[in-house]
Amino acid sequence: MTTNDVPLLDSGHARLNQLGYKQELKRDLSVLSNFAFSFSIISVLTGITTLYNNGLNYGGPVSMVYGWLVACFFTMIVALSMAEICSSYPTSGGLYYWSAKLAGPSWAPFASWITGWFNIVGQWAVTTSVDYSLAQLVQVIILLSTGGKNGGGYVASKYEVIALHGGILVLHGILNSLPISLLSFLGQLGAAWNFLGVFLMILIPSVATERASASFVFTNFNTNNGAGISSRPYIFLIGLLMSQYTLTGYDSSAHMTEETKDADINGPRGIITAVGISIIVGWGYIIGISFAVTDIPYLLSKNNDAGGYAIAEIFYLAFKSRYGNGVGGIICLVIVAVAIFFCGMSSITSNSRMAYAFSRDGAMPLSSLWHKVNKQEVPINAVWLSVIISFCMALTSLGSKVAFDAMVSIATIGLYIAYALPIFFRVTLAQNRFVQGPFNLGRYGIIVGWIAVLWVMTISVLFSLPVSYPITLETLNYTPVAVATFITISQFDHENQEDMNPLSQYCPRSMDSPPIIQPFETTISFSLSRFSVEAESSPIDQDDSALSPIARVEPRGNVTVKFKKKKSQL
Questions:
Q1: Residue range 540-549: average pLDDT?
Q2: Between 188 and which of 36, 94, 123, 176 could a Cys-Cys bridge form, CB atoms 3.0 to 4.6 Å apart?
Q3: Is residue 130 within 8 Å of residue 404, measured between CB atoms?
Q4: What is the mean pLDDT of residues 374-403?
Q5: Is the pTM for the entire model greater than 0.70?
Q6: Closest to 126 (Cα-Cα) out of 247, 277, 239
Q7: Distance CA 353, CA 259 (A)
Q8: Dihedral of CA 352/355/359/361: which sign?
Q9: Domains and CATH numbers, the chain
Q10: Of 555, 504, 563, 511, nearest to 533 (Cα)?
Q11: Are 42 and 278 in contact (CB under 8 A)?
Q12: Is the pLDDT score of 510 beyond 70?
């Protein structure tokens, strides 16, 4: 079929052209694949398993069961606002491009630069914490497999753990060097593994010979935290970290939009679906595992067989009490470890796409190096940059556990600040000029956006509060120090980043100016047995050859392709 030599591109490709970017990555991902990357990064098996100790210590079952619902409600609010913006601007840059577009020409360079750096540093921190958590879990699996802490089991040193962490990162780098079609398959496999793995873990209490009561799971509030904190509201709020840390990384769907078919529709779908399903299965996981909790102090004790790793001890004891050995529990831990492995793999994927887009806009040192793609259309240099930086960030664990623990909070706060900035610009500076895409919140977009911004402000304060008293150098929460330092450095360096404006590099005209479009209308019709296609598009002012119709297919009898003047502002 020909339409006067005008190619029929999908809506995401056409919109990318309108935004001024060249299609360089292979657009081969379905909505399922897009969802799979975000779902694998959220990975409730990863977040809940690795921070279950935190939840038990700060409030116990009540803070986890009900805190999860609180965090999930507001996370969905944030996700809805992000999805609406993603539908309008489906680019791999995601958040920082959105900020530039929404902040207006005067603020665009600073808005995009600060958002981008919060985003990419937060992503690197997430990858670091995920893969380091996997290394720690593998160490616990080895410990239990060799007899446990009380049976002479092997305890790896911190240097062995960091070496294992490096090996995991290298494997993730190799996998992310594969063509996107293979990576898409692995992403879908990871999503399925995470989904099915949760349901297997929920069955653990059915194996245990001793189980908690429903009253314990839904009403027990643990105040015996050994941290000098007795205020129940304070404990509950600090306990939200487990839930909020778990529910991060869904911006991956936005970063994968340049490789997703019909990205202006499927990108938002990926975000919302990943968060929604994670909310349901995560709550089930928390409730299920909590029914196997009978002695909180013992689970948190460094002297148990798992060395204080609460969920590992729960799994191990459940099978040991029933069958006389903990082999079944170790197998369950291996299932969780594989889920975390997929989570880390998808994290590197998202990191590399963000680094690719950010360097494409000249925001990183040696930018020309990081946005190169290989013959398989993979940003290979950005992949290995993410691997190296994530390993370097994990080296903080050798010097101070406190410093590394702060990284978990930074991963959460950094990402959510990056999530909130474009939403803030959308409800303030761009309130009257934001052009909604196919997915939108209609008249509720403003109020939903404000709720999202206020929630991010709230958790940014909460996760910067002290988690132990009295405050010493060992117990100080270094998160606010790290975030304040980053903001200060970024502001200083921003003075040398005036050229960092994704809009000026690719769309030289002012954002507030309407696109220059020559009026025309062409209609092309032909018969087709079962479908009709209607498409419309308008050329961007820089290059009329970039004209690409956006099609809608309906079960009728004809195909009509229309090109006409479009008045909406880019």
A1: 36
A2: 36
A3: no
A4: 83
A5: yes
A6: 247
A7: 10
A8: positive
A9: 1-20+515-570 (no CATH), 28-506 (1.20.1740.10)
A10: 555
A11: yes
A12: no
More confident residue, 279 or 366: 279
147 C-beta neighbours (distance < 10 Å), count: 12
Eight-class DSSP state of 444: G
When pLDDT is cut at 50, 70 and 90, the band that residue 501 belongs to is low
Residue 28 vs residues 82, 179, 358: alpha-carbon distances, Å: 23, 10, 22
Tokens 């259309």, located at residue: 377
Q: Please provide the distance, in angstroms rounded to a whole number, between the alpha carbons at the two ends of the chain.
A: 29
Cα separations in angstroms, 229 against 58, 65, 368, 465, 466: 9, 20, 50, 12, 10
Look up residue 78 and give its two tokens: 């944030």
> C-alpha angle 3/16/520, rounded to 5°?
40
CA distance 460 to 412: 9
How many residues does the structure list for the chain?
570
CA–CA gap between residue 282 and residue 410 (Å, rounded): 22
Considering only 7-21, 157-171, 196-210, 412-426, which range has the smallest mean pLDDT?
7-21
Alpha-carbon span 204 to 199, nearest angstrom: 9
pLDDT tens profile 64-123? 999 999 999 999 999 999 999 999 888 877 888 899 889 988 888 888 888 988 888 888
Phi-psi region of 148 (alpha: psi -120 to 50; beta: other; left: phi over 0): left
Q: What is the mean pLDDT of residues 261-284?
A: 92
Amino acid at 453: V
CA distances in angstroms from 337 to 43, 131, 404, listed in the order given: 11, 10, 20
- Cβ neighbours for 272, distance < 8 A, ≥ 6 positions apart: 76, 79, 80, 83
For residues 47 and 242, is the Cβ–Cβ distance under 8 A?
yes
Reported confidence tier of residue 251, pLDDT bands at 50, 70, 90:
confident
Q: Which two tokens stand for residue 193?
A: 């593994």
* pLDDT in the model for residue 563: 37
Secondary-structure breakdown of the chain: helix, strand, coil percentages, each rounded to the nearest 5: 65, 5, 30
Radius of gyration of the chain, Cα coordinates, nearest whole angstrom: 25
Q: Is 152 left (phi over 0), alpha (psi -120 to 50) or beta?
A: left
Structure tokens at 139: 């160490």
Q: Give the integer Cα–Cα distance in Å for 476 and 544.
A: 58
Q: Is pLDDT larger for residue 370 or for residue 349?
A: 349
276 contact partners, CB below 8 Å, separation of at least 6: 76
> Whose CA is closest to 299, among 287, 286, 317?
317
Tokens of 84: 């609406």
Residue scoring higher pLDDT (469 or 175):
175
Mean pLDDT of 405-427: 85
DSSP track, 219-234: H--B---SSS---HHH
Q: CB of 272 within 8 A of CB of 109?
A: no
Cα 299 from Cα 311, distance rounded (Å) = 8
- In the DSSP assignment, the letter for residue 324 is S
